Amino acid sequence: MGKSSTRTSQSPTGSSRAYILVMLMTSLTSCEMPVTGSGSITTVEEIVDSPKLLHRDSVVWAINVGGSSFLGKDGVSYEPDQSILGGTVGIVDRALGTQDPELFKTFRYGNITIQHPLPNGTYDLTLKFIEPDDLPVGSRVFNVIAEDHVVISRLDVRRMRDNNRLSGLSSSVTDVAVTDGQLDITFSADIGEPILSAVVVRRRTEFDQRWKLAWSDEFNYEGTPDSDKWSADVWPARKVNSEDQAYTDRAKNVRVENGTLILEAHREDYQGAKYTSARIHSAGKGDFLYGRADIRARLPAGQGTWSAIWMLPSDPYRYSTTCEQNEDWQGSRTCDAWPNSGEIDILEHVGFDMQRVWGTVHNRAYYFINQEQRKASIEGNDVDKDFHVYSVEWNPESIQLFFDGSLYFTYVNEGSGWRAWPYDHPYHLILNLAIGGDWGRAGGPIADNIFPARMEVDYVRVYEKGE
For the chain, how long is the longest CA-to-CA vector? Predict the structure, then answer.
């Protein structure tokens, strides 16, 4: 998350045991882990042709708005724009923050209407945008309407892409019901004119029964989180990401009760901090290389919360170049363990943007410093009231993120080396509830009336894939 997060990968190409999951338990921490870099794909053709790349059979329809036929790095085939969508075609010279920059270089703006025949049913939509003009945040705000329902409200592309102009935005919505044999998407402007670069329509991805449970915590006990599976970080405020809370291992901040892990933040003066909360991780107790992880959680509400479910490398120095041995690298300004060795964010959520969740990968080639951050969002449904399942699937060719089984983010191994793909070594899971920090305060000051604030986790399950 922010400046210290995670990522994942899969087994060597050609192996009959696709998605081999390697679990490191405490008794195995001295074992040498297999290195899969030599099995990485190296060409775009291999990426597109790979049968293990993604859930491509879930794609029903895709269109490159304003442009010609296009084949995405993730294997999605886009139809050309046949000039029936309305609005005006626009072109930008370059696009950042995406593995498919050519897809984002064309777009339409103005009065855009999509009407496409589809069998009756329920679909997930991914819409792609780019802000072509050097406008300040708040200068282009519009709503996306699908089947007469507002599915994304007050969309500001530049704000959602961290004020980075020309950074592509991928935003997904779920459960769009088609009942008349035609998908209808329209846009309404609050400020300025709507824009659109591409649309992907998917069926919901089914859970593959070949996934076999390899490591889990169901939290069916009371008290302190299982010490054979979890460790707590005890940190002062502002150690990472300018976060305002101190992390503790007190039962007040982290405990298991009634079958649920609770990470609870409080407004209190504590060791120089004004807030306390908790962060736990599975390093050395539940590390894995490739596989799937499902985490069922309910998120806190309120401006100032910043909750995350994510992954960091179990050997943070794998690709570092400036670190001293055993240096405390998290929050360091001199050690480049982050972002060099990678990070995978299965979920990030900030309370000032309540029903939107994010998935991100961080690495040396693509992160916020060079405006090339690879990330995507999905519109949630009562994420503070209901439990939802946040998932990652990781293999040597791609990382994919899901919300309740809906695929909304794919990052592909480009075969260019560790700077873009440091995800060939074991990672571990992290669960934390931050308060404030660089992102938590981005929507305004922390609301002190929200405390105590809770992030609740029903279960954590890690799977390996069988034959």
Answer: 63
Residues 164 and 272 both lie in one domain: no
- Note whether 397 and 10 are within 8 A (CB): yes
**pLDDT at 208 > cutoff 70:** yes
Question: What are the angstrom distances between the C-alpha of 453 and each of 17, 80, 244, 270, 447?
Answer: 43, 48, 14, 17, 11
pLDDT digits (tens, 9 = 90+) for 31-80: 333 322 223 333 334 434 444 455 767 999 999 999 999 999 999 999 99
- The residues near 58 (Cβ < 8 Å, ≥ 6 apart) are 202, 203, 204, 205, 407
Residues 164 and 196 in one domain: yes
For residues 163 and 13, give the distance between their C-alpha atoms in angstroms, rounded to a whole number. 39
Q: Which has more pLDDT, 325 or 220?
A: 220
Question: What are the phi and psi torsion angles at 345 (to 5°)?
Answer: -100, 105
Domain that holds residue 77: 56-202
- Torsion, CA 84, CA 88, CA 91, CA 95, rounded to 10: -80
Cis peptide preceding 136, ω within 30 of 0:
no
Quick check: 297 pLDDT over 50? yes
pLDDT reported for residue 54: 59
Cis peptide before 452 (omega within 30 of 0): yes
H helices present in 157-296, as ranges: 157-160
- 169-178/374-379 β-pairing: parallel
* Mean pLDDT along residues 445-455: 98
Residues 114 and 252 placed together within one structural domain of the fold: no
Q: 34: which DSSP letter?
A: P
CA gap 316, 364 in Å, rounded? 13
Beta carbons of 408 and 76 less than 8 angstroms apart: no
Catalytic residue IDs: 343, 348
Number of structural domains (the chain) is 2
306 closest CA partner among 401, 241, 389: 241
- Residue 295 inside a domain? The answer is yes
Are the CB atoms for 395 and 52 separated by under 8 Å?
A: yes
Beta strands in 82-196 (DSSP E): 86-91, 106-117, 121-129, 141-146, 149-155, 169-178, 182-191, 195-196
Same domain, 369 and 285: yes
Q: From CA 423, how far away is CA 319, in angstroms rounded?
A: 11
Both tokens assigned to 401: 């993120």
pLDDT in tens, 330-355: 999 999 999 999 999 999 999 999 99
- Residues 227, 326, single domain; the answer is yes
The pLDDT of residue 204? 86
